[in-house]
Each structure stands twice: as C-alpha cells, then as structure tokens.
Amino acid sequence: MGSTYGKIFKIATFGESHGAGIGVIIEGCPAGIAFDSDFIQSELTRRKPGQSRITTQRKEADEFEVLSGVFEGKTTGTPIALIIRNEDQRSKDYSHIAAQYRPSHADYTYQVKYGVRDYRGGGRSSARETAARVAAGALAKLLLMEMGVSIQAYVSQVGRLKLAKTYAELDLTETENNAVRCPDPVMAEQMFEYIDSVRKQGDSVGGVVSCVIKGAPAGWGEPVFDKLHAELGKAMLSINAVKGFEYGSGFEGVSLLGSQHNDAFYIDDNQNIHTRTNHSGGIQGGISNGEDIYFNVAFKPVATIMQDQESIDQNGDIAVVQGKGRHDPCVVPRAVPIVEGMAALVLADFYLRNKSSRI
Amino acid sequence: MGSTYGKIFKIATFGESHGAGIGVIIEGCPAGIAFDSDFIQSELTRRKPGQSRITTQRKEADEFEVLSGVFEGKTTGTPIALIIRNEDQRSKDYSHIAAQYRPSHADYTYQVKYGVRDYRGGGRSSARETAARVAAGALAKLLLMEMGVSIQAYVSQVGRLKLAKTYAELDLTETENNAVRCPDPVMAEQMFEYIDSVRKQGDSVGGVVSCVIKGAPAGWGEPVFDKLHAELGKAMLSINAVKGFEYGSGFEGVSLLGSQHNDAFYIDDNQNIHTRTNHSGGIQGGISNGEDIYFNVAFKPVATIMQDQESIDQNGDIAVVQGKGRHDPCVVPRAVPIVEGMAALVLADFYLRNKSSRI
Amino acid sequence: MGSTYGKIFKIATFGESHGAGIGVIIEGCPAGIAFDSDFIQSELTRRKPGQSRITTQRKEADEFEVLSGVFEGKTTGTPIALIIRNEDQRSKDYSHIAAQYRPSHADYTYQVKYGVRDYRGGGRSSARETAARVAAGALAKLLLMEMGVSIQAYVSQVGRLKLAKTYAELDLTETENNAVRCPDPVMAEQMFEYIDSVRKQGDSVGGVVSCVIKGAPAGWGEPVFDKLHAELGKAMLSINAVKGFEYGSGFEGVSLLGSQHNDAFYIDDNQNIHTRTNHSGGIQGGISNGEDIYFNVAFKPVATIMQDQESIDQNGDIAVVQGKGRHDPCVVPRAVPIVEGMAALVLADFYLRNKSSRI
Amino acid sequence: MGSTYGKIFKIATFGESHGAGIGVIIEGCPAGIAFDSDFIQSELTRRKPGQSRITTQRKEADEFEVLSGVFEGKTTGTPIALIIRNEDQRSKDYSHIAAQYRPSHADYTYQVKYGVRDYRGGGRSSARETAARVAAGALAKLLLMEMGVSIQAYVSQVGRLKLAKTYAELDLTETENNAVRCPDPVMAEQMFEYIDSVRKQGDSVGGVVSCVIKGAPAGWGEPVFDKLHAELGKAMLSINAVKGFEYGSGFEGVSLLGSQHNDAFYIDDNQNIHTRTNHSGGIQGGISNGEDIYFNVAFKPVATIMQDQESIDQNGDIAVVQGKGRHDPCVVPRAVPIVEGMAALVLADFYLRNKSSRI
C-alpha cells in the first residue's frame, strides 16, 4: 500500500533501483490529450543521472516505452502504462551492504516492516522511483498546459547559500541555464562550487526547491482534508529526502499580525478579482483563488556519502558502512523536475475533481 | 470530496459553523476498544472556545453524543457516529457579511467553487469542524494507548517569541498548566501577555505547535507516496490556518552536511536498535524507526480581526469588512489538541495498514 | 471497513437496529441541487415498517433530520448528514437471543469476526440500515431527475408467483397502488394473499424485485472493473437478503445464440442511435448505451420466522431459537424503494465520474 | 477510472488487445510469499487462446515478465509489475471495422464516452485484458494456498445443456481433463459437440461457470456494502460477457420458505461449528461462515460471430459488419481460470482487510 497517488488522475508506480525496470500506470487521464512523447522524454532527461559532475555518475538513458492507453497520438481515456528499463545496474556494487543498515537510509525500516528487502541500491526506497513520477507528471503538465497552467521550480537554497529574492524578483527563464537550476546566475555559480567542494570531501549537503504555479483558476482544491496545499504538501513530502514544506508566507508568516498578513481583495481594470498581497500563496480555505501558488520544499543532505560510517548489520553486529558507489552530493538540481511533476499531478487531479463541484 | 481521511481507520466529518451541528463517522476502528467517553470529552474540552480571555468567547459546551458503533462500553467494529450540536450560533452576527469576501478567508473561493455558500461564520470552512477531528482523534489515541504510543503537542512559538529548547529539554507535563499550552512557564507568561496585547489591538498573530510521538514501533508508514511524514504533513496542513510543516531536522537541516546529519545505528544494552542522533525525526524512508517522531506546524495569524478592512462583495463592489464577532487572537493554544488528534489519526491508520505488510 | 459506497457521490452509513439512531453522510453531492425534503421523506415512508399487515409491525416514523450541507434550500457541495432516530426499540425483545446464533442470520459471523456484537435486532446487520440508503438514494434521485433519468422498481415474483410480462408490457404506474408493489393488480392480489398465508404460518418467503432505468444517456460506467452493471450488481447484492442479480438477458440469455442475442444498431427518424432489441440491458462493455437499463434482484426468504428452530449458542451448547419479535414475512414490497435508491446512488456516481472522461 | 480492483490486495490492469502489451500492477501483496512463476504461467496457459478447436485460433504464448516486487524468489511487499507482450496482433484484420459499431460490442459506447477509441480488436474492451487478471489472481491463489483456501471453477452449462448435479456430487478433479472444463465427462462431450456445431455455423452460444471455494475461515467480508458476496458479484460481473451472478440458493431460493431455507447450526465431533444445510452459500450477513462458498456466473453468447450483421458506422450510415477474424464460439471454457482468478483476488483482499477487525 502507498504506491498510488491521486483520486481521479491517479498514478501507480512500481520498480526498484536495480530490478528489471521501473514504471507507472496513469489512470483517469482524460481522452483526447495529444501525447507529446518528446516533451515527456525531455522531462525525464532533466531528471536523469549524469548531467554534470555534481550529479551521480550512474548512466541511465531513462528512455520510456508506452505500453497502452495511447492510440494515433492521443490518450484514449484508458490506463497509460509507461516503463523505463534499468540499464546501469551494477548490482555487485551493493553486495557489500547486503546485510548492513546504512545510516539514515531505509534499510533498517524496510527490513523491520517486510522481513525481506531488495538491498541493491536501496531497492524500492531509491530515488530512482521518481523517474516514474516525472514521466507521469509530464503528462499531467500536458493536460494543464491546455488549461493555461504553468509550473516552474528552481533551486533557492544550497546549504546556507540562500536566494534573497522572491520568485517574482527572479528571471525564472534562467533556471535551466546552469547545472544547479538556480535562476540567479551568480548564486548558481557559488552553489555549484560549493556542491563540488562538498563532493570532493565525499560528503553531501541539503537544499531548498521553490516552486511557483501560474494560471491556475480559482476553485481547485477540496475542503476539508484534501486542501490544495495539504495535497501539495503530501506530494512534496513523499519525495525522497524531503524534510519540510511551506506555502505562501510559510514559517515566516507566523510572526506577522493578521492586519499585516491578510490579503485585501480588489477588482482590476478587467473586472477580475485579485488580492493586493499574496501571503495566502494563492490558496484560501484550501482552494485556489486565482493568484500565483508558491511554496518551498526542504531537502536534507542525502544519506549516501563517500566516507566510512559506523553502523550495525542485520545480525546486530557492529559494521563499517564503506563509502562506495555513486551518489548525488546534493539532490536539489535533479529534484527540480520532480517537484514540478508532483505539483502537476496534484493540480491535474484537482482540476478533474472540481468538475463535480456543481451540477 | 475531501471530507474523509484515512485508509483503514477512516473518518468522515460533516457540519458547518452555524448549522444544526457537526460530527464525524469513524469507520474501521477495530472492535474491542474500551470506549472512554470521559477521555474523549476531556479532549474536546481542551479544544473548546472560551477557555481563557485569549481565546474566542463563543460559548459551546461541545458535548458529544454517540449514535452508533459502541455497545456495552466497547467498540463493535462498526461505524461510530459522534455528533456535537451547535449551541451559540448567533447567526445574525453574520448577516452583515453575507455578500462580502472577508480578506484571507474562504468566502471568495467557496463562492467561486460552489456558486453557493453558507456564509454564517465561514460555514464549512470554519475551524469549528476541527472539533469533530478532536473527537475522532481521541478515539485513535485510545487505540494507540493500548499500543504504548503517546502523543504530546505544545506551543513552541507565538509571533517572534520562540522556545530555544528542544522537546527533549522541556518538561512537557507543564504544557497543560497554562492557557497558552507552552511547557516553559516563563515563556508561557510572555506569550500570554503578547497575545493579550494583540487581542486588545483587535489584531491576531501566528505561532508554531510542536509535537512529539513516543513509543511508536518501527515499521509504520507506507512507501512511496504514503510515507509516514507525508501523511503527517497532509494531516497537519489540512488544519485551518496552517502554512508549513517540517519534521526531524526540517528546514534547518538543509544547511547540514550528510556526515553531520546521518543518524548512526547502534545496539543498546537491551539489544534494541537505536540511532545516536535523531535528525531523521524517527522516520527513515517514510517508515518509523522506533525513535521519537517529532515535527513542527506553522499557523498563520487568523484572518478574523477586529479592524475594518477594505474588500469587495459578490457584486464586485468595494466593501468595508467590519471587525465584529468573536475570534481567537492566536489559534495555537487551542490547536494543540487538534495537532495531537490528527497525529493520532495518522498513526492509528498506519498501525492498521501495517498489519498487511507480511503474510 | 465496508460502510461506504461510491467514488465521487459517496455515502457512509452508520447505525444499528436498536442503537440511538441511524444515518448517512453524503459526500460529493454537487452544489446547487434543490433539497426537496418532502420527496426524501416520501421515499423513506415507502420503505418504513408497518405499511400493511404483510410487513413488520415495528413502529417507526422514520423521520429524518438534516445536520449539514444544505443552506437556504440548496445543497452547498459540503457533506450532507442525515440522521433518523430509532424509536420503537424494544430491546428487551432480544435479551433471549443475546447468546444465541439465529439460523441464517449474521449473529455467528459477526461474533467470529469482531469478538463482540450488538445482538439487539441484529445490530448493524439489520435491514434497518437500509433506511439510510433510501434517504441518500432519494437525494441521488433528485440529482438524476435534473438529468432526465427515472428509476422504477417493482415486485415481479413472490415465491413461485412470477410475472410473465416484461417491464415494457406492464403499466408501472400501478406499482404503488397495492401493498405488494406489483404493477399487475391481479398478480398483486395473489401475491398478497400468499404472503399473508405464509405470515399466518409464522414463515417467510422470497421474491424478486425488477428495476428499469429510463433516460440515462450513453457513456455512464467505467471500464474495466467498475462496469455499470458490475456496480449495480454490487449495490444490489449489498442489500440484505439478496442472493442474485442479472441484467438484460441475464441467466436466460446463456441459452441463446449470438445471432439471436446481438442487438443491431439503427438510426431513428431523429437521427438518434438505438438498438432494435435490448438483450444488452442498456449496457455494452460496461457503459450505458442510451437504451433502457433493466435488471432483476433475487431476495431469499428472510431468516426470522415465528417458529422454533434448533441452533447453538456462544458456548457451543444446543439452543432453541424461539419465534418471537416482529418481522416481514416477505421483504420484497419494502425492498422496492431500496433497490431504486441503490440504483440511483450507482448512477449519480457514474454521472459524476463521467465528467472526467474527456478533456 | 475503473481499472483498479481491491482495497488492500489491489490490482491495476492496463493494455489493449492490439497494443504493445497488457499487464498488471499488484499492490499490497504481503512480503514473504514464495513467487511461483511456473504456477502463474500455468494459470495463464489455462486461459490462453488456441487450446482446442472450440477456442479462438489467435496465437499468443502469454508469457509474462516480472518487472518489480520480487527478490530472491519472494515477494518484497512492494508493487509487483507483470507484463505480457502482445504477439499475434494482426491489426490489419480490424481496419474494415475501424468506423463500424459492431452489434453488442463496446465500439459505440467507448466512442460516445471518450470521443476516441482503439478499434483494433475491441482495444481496452477486449477480453484479452483478463490475462492480466489471471496472472494477478494466480498470485492471490498462492497467498490463499498458504491459508488453506482452494478455489475450483467449472463449466456447468452451455446453451441449454445444464449439469443437474451440484458441485458436491461432481468429481471436480475431472474438470481439466476435457476442453470444455466440465467435470462430468459425458456432459463435457455433449457440450463440446454442441459448441463445435455452433462454431461451424459461424455463431456463438452462452454458458454458466460455477465455482466453489473451500477452506475459507469464518470472518471474511465487510458489512455493509462490501459484503463478501457483493464483491464476488462485482468481480464476476466485471468479466467480459457476464450477465448474472447468484450465490448459495440464488434465484431458485426465492421460491423456498424461510423454514426450508434457513441453515441450522450444529457442533461437530471436533467442536467445530457448522450448518446442516448451506443455502447461505457459506456467507451470512456478508461474512464467510466457514462453509463452502459457491456461486454461478452467467455468460452471454459472445458478440463476435462469423455472420454478416446490419449496423451503422460512426457517420450514422448503415453498414454491414462482416463476420471476419478469430473468436471463441463459447467463452466459458476459457472463463474458468478467470472466474477463479477474480475469486482469488476478492478473497485475498478480504483476508487482509479482516486483519483490522479486532485490536
């Protein structure tokens, strides 16, 4: 249980890091959407390993195959199955950790829960699973584009290097122009150097991905448990290594007074309703209000480091976990398309759910 | 859609702020739990309005009635319906805002979504709905107590007044000894005075509720979307006025290196597996690891303030929203049992879900 | 688990035969439907006990109260809670069977499953629960009426007394004119006399309810598991005492050849597509095709009879179950509105689900 | 929506008749089950086309590949993805019906619902999808075998040729010894000849599959909507060509009196509780009572026949649907493993759901 997401636009992912492959079934995608394979592949390419020297050197083309649900270039309303074969598996890399519990990995908890685990590269707990999310999220993006909705994420913090500017003050078209995916070129350069220095130490560091959604109409989100921000939060927190989520004014907002925080309504020259400020982050009462939706996602330093660490093994004996294998010294550059993809899945689902709100 | 929570231990809440009443159906509660009405009532009393001069003066006894699912003092395995009648409705208080969109409330978004709304006191979007959650959460707590799990929340920040100590450094038994529900008596006093001064200004202020869960065994939580912290996050973000959620090292943790952040495993004298640090917040790979689970929840300043605010009405005309009615100048003291209740619902559900993880 | 039905138009029922009351929460009902209380009450009245001497003599007004989700006469899109208090409980009638397992009742299976049970009148397993379904079904009917869909059920068989005519050959407006709810007055009279004779013997007898749905457009139903007839089947089989379901040509159809059974398409003078025959029962590939939907539901003789029966009790001792209490000698007359209500719930759900089939 | 089945042991199928392939993701399968590939393949072989001259001559090896969820021969608790490539697609066979609505097929209803359809061999509406169910059902069987539960289906009727004996009077080990899968060799021979004569006429005929489940303990099934027989009914009705479902005494039982129909309880020499008769079909109040569970499933004559039929096309023009292609003159022989597989999926799910019925 737990490998499905969504109520109407619903995905079920499968696959382990070093099994035959990974993939996703997308159910509930409306019929008639132009299935743009190139776009989906390009999203996967944004996430794939080996993009620069600050990402893992695992080699995966991450090419996907469509098994169903698409006919003559359009979605048919039936389940769409996408699979991605694992190529560079190097399972032998992991034999030395078969019985070990790597610190801050899921080895121990999977073992306790299931009594058995695929120890190769973290098995199901590997972030490799997120490729399936990105593929499905790309399809959700195609649906949202038809609604005029765009989603843009970027790296806003690495370690203590933090962008001072808000999304509105940045040129987000710069995001994809550097390996860090930070839209401020100067900061991007600093972040790159910092990550690279951490990498050389055989260490890892955390970061923050920020995301802004433009063009979502008012009315998306379902009270009271499935609030738009609650589902965004769950979706983001379900991504590997995420430790926190905040939207709109977030944790900073707690220090404000209500008179400062409230977003006054007004009508613009086109008779459209807007708010003068947007501490609400585009969401009021769990439902989008037509303003930009924005949020931050905190990622911890990844647990795999190239240093020896003391731990224990399945027998309860003391063990030294050796720093071997390939890893990302900082996940946030590759997390950008994952954050976008999950956001797209949340919104596509709420778009469809909202169709039933009125007779 | 959206008024249910949980997969096995599942609740469905109903009710509006000024309708006949509110309530909850709890489905999937195992048979045989001693139904302790006094405990459930005492949890509702912790949340009810009118507790002190820093909470809303609305008068509600918040007494609940059991309609089903309990027989001879025990749960029977069938749905448990609990209802709470609304008493102090004063609907006339709200006639002046029938057509207005109050800033940072859900008036506008509900109107757009549904084309109709119960404008009295926010209707369904009112935090009054959380009483139903607290009642259901109390039952979940009774179930968890039988498993040796305890949940304790407390106020750790009001405005800029923030506890420097971690939960481990505090005496949480002090929490219920003051109106703010802050376990540090000195800070509690300062917070009380600050909230009271904000109240006198007719304003409101935000805060943070922290929560710690002790005694949860390893193995709860479901990869990959229904990670324990992802569900905790969703549950917390679904509470009115919440803007952020972080667990374990949270947003602070992004600045650490992996070598600092990783929690080393060891075996204690009783042959139990533990970690030397707990940046993971008791959760690894989305599954509890047996350590304390802890997290923070950010609440914005409530939108209702006793000041006039400019806005618009349903006709698109400019309107002045008057500062009338009753409200909480700061919600966090009353949010403490809500956070606990929602955490209990999440854990009870995962306890039951985990029963199927092995044959 | 198991007390909810529906994916979008979703109901959760609660309550026991002799508890405080029963009820239902309806979630996902679109906003803006005129909430016709009189109609809902009239549907409950069709199901209520004590309608004639061939139904149980339990006295229940079965008046319902609305707790939420309706404002100024319209549904608001939020959960609608309806409760019905139990009045004529006579719990003492049941003390003699507290430890007994009544033959073909659910006493034994509930005891094994839950380890505890409310033995009064069958508790949760009582058909009294169906009143909640009828109330919710009445609201679903109101929604369907706005779509031009009508649902009519009637008794087509009691014991071996079976109508030879199909629904198309009957005048269904006669259905409510007799206590049996058989649209053929002559057969109705015979059925009444037969049921009454069975009643006098202290026995019970089974029957069949047939149902026809007119006006449903093509396109409702979801492949491949949630076929329209599969959900209708589940919904009907979930009604107390039901043993079988068939639609269209049903069990008889297995003897036909494909060349006889296939329904040829044609276009009528209004350029509408129809089929010349309707062995398909208005459903092809699990999706409505615009023709009449019709099906039969088989009800066993109810288990409660006024005769002594040998059985055992919870201790494993032999026991004589005495023929006491009140019961229906034949459930089908009162089952007619239940069948209609459940059919309405199925269709309302598929109407809403179908909104997402295309972009 | 609609391509998933189950609450805990949950499957999602995908794939079209003439697409790249079909498959299934099984989620919620407990960890630690020995994954017997040979058994799963043997179940698929029982369903595959081309078994004898009375089944379709389409050639498909129906070999499956495991993509995930199995490690070192055991299930790991994570999603298990199985895929089956389509081989003998002959899509050109279908170009002549691209625009036609074949009588009693799903061409028209899919077109209306989705506005687009994969017309090749019925696309998603093809019974080819059931291979995925059989594969998943085989895994459910492996789980149930560990619980001592066996499931046996057989053909009990073809056209008007109907077995007079009940399952208890038959030697079910004979079932797999003939092409019809009827356990009575004499009747099997008659059925075979009859189907073959129908085939030679280019026609088709219906039939009934009966099924018996032995060894299921008391307690499986969830009141009130998810009764064991309601889910069995839905599962069976979701199989292509099914028109009816009955369990226990079924439609025949309606003619009985309660005094005849009730199943008296007794205790056997081993102190086990049983019923003297089993009109209840092993289910009381929607929950298994430990007796044999048995039911019948009615299949219509398949819609594809080798005769010309008048119909219309997508333009509303009159069209002659020609009798081409490959088809089963009678589906029930190949439906036997499908019925068993779906029954296994229902039971496996209830086994897991029942784990939460008590604390």
UniProtKB/TrEMBL annotation, chains A, B, C, D:
Cofactor(s) named in the record: FMNH2
One function term, GO molecular function aspect: FMN binding
Residue numbers binding FMN: 124-126, 240-241, 285, 300-304, 326
CDD domains: Chorismate_synthase
Cofactor binding note from Swiss-Prot or TrEMBL: Reduced FMN (FMNH(2)).
A Pfam cross-reference name: Chorismate_synt
Metabolic or biological pathway: Metabolic intermediate biosynthesis; chorismate biosynthesis; chorismate from D-erythrose 4-phosphate and phosphoenolpyruvate: step 7/7
Secretion signal, residue range per the UniProt entry: none
Annotated catalysed reactions: 5-O-(1-carboxyvinyl)-3-phosphoshikimate = chorismate + phosphate
Gene Ontology annotations of biological process type: amino acid biosynthetic process; aromatic amino acid family biosynthetic process; chorismate biosynthetic process
Keywords, alphabetical: Amino-acid biosynthesis, Aromatic amino acid biosynthesis, FAD, Flavoprotein, FMN, Lyase, NADP
EC number of the protein: 4.2.3.5
GO cellular component terms attached to this protein's record: cytosol
Similarity comment: family membership: Belongs to the chorismate synthase family.
Protein's job: This reaction introduces a second double bond into the aromatic ring system.
Protein's recorded name: Chorismate synthase
Organism: Dyadobacter sediminis
